[in-house]
Amino acid sequence: MSFELQASLGARNFDMSLSLRDGETVAILGPNGAGKSTLLGVIAGLLRPDSGAARIGDKELFNLDGGSHHWSPPHQRGTALLAQEALLFPHLNALDNVAFGPRSAGASKAAAREAAQHWLTEVDALPLAHRKPAQLSGGQAQRIAVARALAAEPELLLLDEPMAALDIHAAPLLRRVLKRVLKDRKAIIVTHDVLDAYMLAHRVIVVEKGRIAEQGPTRQVLERPRSQFAAGLAGLNLISGTIAKDGITTPDGQVFAGQHDPDWSPLPGQAGVAAFPPSSVSVFLGDVHGSPRNAFPVTVTDLERHGDQIRVRASAGALAQALSADITPAASADLGLVPGMDVRFVVKSALVSVYPA
Question: Which pairing describes strands 51-56 and 59-63: parallel, antiparallel, or unpaired?
Answer without folding.
Answer: antiparallel
